[in-house]
Amino acid sequence: MTAAPFPVGQRDYSLVGPDSRRAVEIGLASAEWYHSEVPRAVMKDLMKRTDGPAIRDTILWFALLIGGAWGGIYFWGTWACVPFLFVYSVVYGSSCDSRWHECGHGTAFRTPWMNDVIYQIASFMVMRNPVTWRWSHARHHTDTYIVGRDAEIAWMRPPKTLTNFLALFDVIGAVRSLGILARNASGRLTPDEKDFIPESEWGKAVLAARIHMAIYAATIATALATWSWLPLMLIGLPRIYGSWHMVMCGHLQHAGLAENVLDHRLNTRTVYMNPISRFIYWNMNYHIEHHMFPMVPYHALPRLHEVIKADLPPPNTSILDGYREVFASLRRQKTDPEYYLRKTLPPSAKPYREEFHTLDIARSRT
Amino acid sequence: MPHWIRACATDDISPEDLIRFDHDGLTYAIYHAPDGRFYATAGRCTHEDVHLCDGLVMGHLIECPKHNGQFDYRTGEAKRLPACVNLQTFPVKVEAGAVFIELN
């Protein structure tokens, strides 16, 4: 079958549009992806589950949340509350994303209920429907940055730089997330959501949204009853004023890299980060490694990186280094949406498989 | 008609692990449980077309390497989302140091 032609630069990122049909037709959907070779015994050791690291990190996480909230409440109305709320907001509004993510994969803890409890708490904090996002993230791993298939493409081409960086203090994202929860709570799912969520899960998505919205309604009622912003500063608003670290790290994952390829070395970025960011982000800076081997828990990703780094493009050396690269690539994409940064592999790496990775270009020639 | 096919030697699979076995155009997963027993299921996850042979065996669960869906490989029951549909299982016997699975 010959796929319909698309003019250069035009993309339809919806999951029910022409690009979606095209991805299926040319074999990009649910395809087999490249992965680096790791001996089975080594991989078994890397995949091994344990509760210890995640329990330690979760105790620290809750200690920071409780301590930050205590200081915020105790010093409320004075400047002394600011550092407490700064810490509280980041561990609420940014750490929630990595906890949601890792527990959604079920790899943080060995004990399933621990993953489930933290997944539900973190989903609430990050304002994501826990049912909807479990399925959208499964699709993100099946079809990473495949146009028309991946519901989590943050940087659509041509890039809207200003809009995405306004999201650094995630007003737009939080309002949008709340709107989605409100719509789900009213019983409505979009065609895109119905595309990646099995019908048997639709009712659960609606119920979860209603629980989240009920908690927000109770928080607003408390704020009105006490005539104070404090309840909202502790529940809900940290998703806006504390999400900057989540957004800062999240944009580095795929921005400026390839679409419609079947090799995570081409569409995903690994960035070396400082220990504090790695705690907040739960080592998701090793993002190529995570996408290639999603069963490896966050605490084993640095070890996995050492095992396969000879087969990967050189990682960015810092957050700043990553952003230099991202901005340069996005600038090109604003005028040339077909452009993407193609990183040079070290001599020790297996080369990119051209028969798969020229699809993005071939797309404009059919 | 059901018949027994030799899949592998018992020591081809480490305890608490699995291997891939292909036969007659179909693909299977053969498991060595921690209690020393052997089991067989269809090779590919019921959620997406991903082979389970690169997955993780934890006790009597096999976790899919792509989306972390889990199945009880003794019964094929889907135990963790996104796996919703049970996995097909096959009878297994061990004779003279080899693992056989019964296929139709």
Q: How would the global form of chain B be characterised?
A: globular
Largest interface: A-B, 21 and 18 residues
* N-to-C span of chain A: 12 Å
Order of helices and strands of chain B: EEEEEEEEEEE
What is the H/E string of chain A?
HHHHHHHHHHHHHHHHHHHHH
Given the structure, what is the number of helices of chain B? Answer: 0
Beta-strand portion of chain A reads under 5%
Biggest sheet details of chain A: none
Strands in their spatial order, largest beta sheet of chain B: 2-3-4-9
Compact overview of the structure:
With 366 residues, chain A is mostly helical. Chain A is built from 21 helices and no strands.
Topology (SSEs and partners):
The complex is a heterodimer of chains A (366) and B (104).
Chain A: H1 18-25, H2 40-47, H3 52-74, H4 81-93, H5 95-105, H6 112-125, H7 130-142, H8 161-166, H9 171-185, H10 191-196, H11 202-226, H12 230-234, H13 238-241, H14 244-252, H15 264-267, H16 275-281, H17 287-292, H18 301-308, H19 319-335, H20 354-357, H21 359-362
Helix pairs in contact in A: 3-4, 5-6, 9-11
Chain B: E1 3-9, E2 17-23, E3 26-32, E4 38-42, E5 56-58, E6 61-63, E7 70-72, E8 78-80, E9 89-90, E10 92-95, E11 98-103
Antiparallel strand pairs in B: 1-11, 2-3, 3-4, 4-9, 5-6, 6-7, 7-8, 10-11
